[in-house]
Recover the amino acids of this structure.
């Protein structure tokens, strides 16, 4: 696979380009490389590349991530208001009191939530717009079903720890210049539990956990975008000491579409027409996410005119309803003419005459 080009380079912009510059550059390049208009080899690839660059640079969050981390960054942005995930691990809590006090190093074996997992999926433009079901395969730590995480062979009870007498702590008295310290440390034989396991569970070798490969189905809601993630509560790694499992975060990468482009929840489609269609009007069929749709082009339509196909856009993610499809008229100038066409254009040119320009009088 070819190396991904820098998005600024793709759009021919400096890194401090304004939002307006990005929009302008994109429009220009998208027109230039549109597969309907440009039949050169590689035009469609270039069109996709331009789309992808615009998708990232036109989004504030993604652009910031791209500026910092490059291509990898843009693929991993959380949406605004999207709950960040934490990796679950608490550091040791260390408390120290000097001057004849007690030094306690506590690493309490208390319940805590399992680690979160992250998974990236790629979906098509249509799948993002209409929603879909996906399956992801993850490997995660789960509680051992045999011992339910107790680590003991079923039926064999743990016994009191001899080293600490069941308190889970060992105290050492230390003398120093500042006075007498009492050091309390976690008992290393029982890890502070006060009990030791007499016979380990054979199925997990006494760890309490097992690794499993799981296929998990993910409902991707209609209207999802690159900046959104899906949280599957409790589908992460098993919790510790009876704590709840972590979450699974599925990050979505929406592939660029060959013809459609997304603007918020609207779908933008450029419709190529010839001079005659624009001048005389026509009835055409345009593709939409929901199948082909008939559309009237009124006579005398100008290049760039936008027609709205109501509710043919992308579902709103957080509310009901959908965006629209915006059909942008793209009047194509023929780049080669047959003899007959040339003759007709010449006749037409005579008939139309020159367009009167307002600025000519100046
Ligand atoms: Zn076990
Ligand atoms: Zn102990």
């Amino acid at each position: 696979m070819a190396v991904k080009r820098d998005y600024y380079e793709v759009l021919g912009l400096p890194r401090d380009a304004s939002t307006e510059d990005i929009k302008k550059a994109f429009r220009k390049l998208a027109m230039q490389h549109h597969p309907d208009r440009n039949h050169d080899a590689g035009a469609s690839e270039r069109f996709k590349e331009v789309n992808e660059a615009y998708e990232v640079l036109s989004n504030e969050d993604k652009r910031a991530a791209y500026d910092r981390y490059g291509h990898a960054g843009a693929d991993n942005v959380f949406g605004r208001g999207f709950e960040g995930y934490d990796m679950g691990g608490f550091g040791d809590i260390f408390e120290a009191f000097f001057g004849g006090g007690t030094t306690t190093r506590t690493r309490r074996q208390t319940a805590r939530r399992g680690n979160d997992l992250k998974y990236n999926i790629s979906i098509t433009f249509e799948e993002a717009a209409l929603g879909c079901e996906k399956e992801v395969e993850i490997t995660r730590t789960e509680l051992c079903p045999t011992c339910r995480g107790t680590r003991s062979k079923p039926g064999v009870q743990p016994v009191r720890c001899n080293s600490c007498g069941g308190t889970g702590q060992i105290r050492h008295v230390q003398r120093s210049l500042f006075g007498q310290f009492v050091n309390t440390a976690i008992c290393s034989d029982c890890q502070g539990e006060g009990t030791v396991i007499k016979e380990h569970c054979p199925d997990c070798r006494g760890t309490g956990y097992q690794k499993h490969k799981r296929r998990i189905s993910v409902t991707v809601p209609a209207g999802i975008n690159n900046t959104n993630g899906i949280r599957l509560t409790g589908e992460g790694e098993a919790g510790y000491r009876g704590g709840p499992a972590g979450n699974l975060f599925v990050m979505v990468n929406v592939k660029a579409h060959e013809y459609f482009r997304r603007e918020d929840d609207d779908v933008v489609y450029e419709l190529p027409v010839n001079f005659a269609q624009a001048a005389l009007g026509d009835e055409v069929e345009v593709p939409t996410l929901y199948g082909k749709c008939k559309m009237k082009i009124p006579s005398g339509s100008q290049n760039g005119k936008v027609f709205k196909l109501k509710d043919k856009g992308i579902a709103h993610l957080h509310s009901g309803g959908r965006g629209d499809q915006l059909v942008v008229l793209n009047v194509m100038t023929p780049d080669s003419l047959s003899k007959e066409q040339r003759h007709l254009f010449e006749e037409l040119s005579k008939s139309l005459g020159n367009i009167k320009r307002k600025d000519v009088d100046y």
